[in-house]
Specification:
Strand content: 25-35%
Mean pLDDT: 93
Structural class: alpha/beta
Helix content: 10-25%
Bound molecules: NADP nicotinamide-adenine-dinucleotide phosphate
CATH architecture: 3-Layer(aba) Sandwich
CATH superfamily: Dihydrofolate Reductase, subunit A
Low-confidence stretches: none
Shape: globular
Distance between the termini: 45 Å
Largest sheet: 8 strands, mixed
Number of domains: 1
Number of helices: 6
Radius of gyration: 18 Å
CATH class: Alpha Beta
Strand order of the largest sheet: 4-3-2-5-1-6-8-7
Length: about 200
Amino acid sequence: MQIRARMSMSADGYVTTPSGWPALTADPAFVSGESHGIRDFLEGCEAALMGRTTFEPALTNERWPWPNLNVFVLGSRRPSGTPDHVVTDSDPARLLEKLRAANQGGDVHLVGGPRTIETFRALGALDKLELVVLPLLFGAGMRLTPSLDPDTGLTFERERALPGGSVEIVYAVSGRASGSPARDNDWSPASQRSGRK
Ligand SMILES: NC(=O)c1ccc[n+]([C@@H]2O[C@H](COP(=O)([O-])OP(=O)(O)OC[C@H]3O[C@@H](n4cnc5c(N)ncnc54)[C@H](OP(=O)(O)O)[C@@H]3O)[C@@H](O)[C@H]2O)c1
């Protein structure tokens, strides 16, 4: 069982629209449950895991977004209207135990959002981070960081172009990113003028 987070993001790095919807919902190519490579992605998955904030809008959706998956939700309360088969827990380690106990060998789609991805990363349970970069600029919205620890180590595994102009990038997640001089050093215009590097 692998826990695979998959997040869509705009080309300027936002995982939500300025009004808080998942980035891919703004793409004219978006079809719930079909577009942006989701069918291929879900082939090996048997469960969906998410935070309460990401889960709640599904309760009023026209279409139940996870028809063939066992659903696990992290949150301090069980939202009213939650179907009986959905497992909720307020404790991430306990929810992870329930997820593992129910697992029959398939992968887990970690739907998000960023806080829940970080929660399971910090538990050492996040195996993959998959990004779907959309051909859109938002100018504002929520980013993956700082909720997700910026020191998270990523190792490139593969990429593919998707119909509609998006690109899927798959990273394996490891402990910590190795130090990057480009990130650590000051590259402000002032430091360049004074000759500092
Ligand atoms: N671009 C995409 O593909 C994509 C995918 C999914 C979601 N999103 C976006 O992500 C946004 C939501 O992200 P988010 O990070 O704010 O919220 P989130 O991760 O969906 O849910 C956060 C909630 O999960 C629970 N939680 C998280 N970590 C916890 C911990 N360590 N211990 C206990 N409970 C914990 C808490 O529930 P309680 O408050 O009940 O305690 C917390 O309020 C939405 O705007 C959604 O549109 C984007």
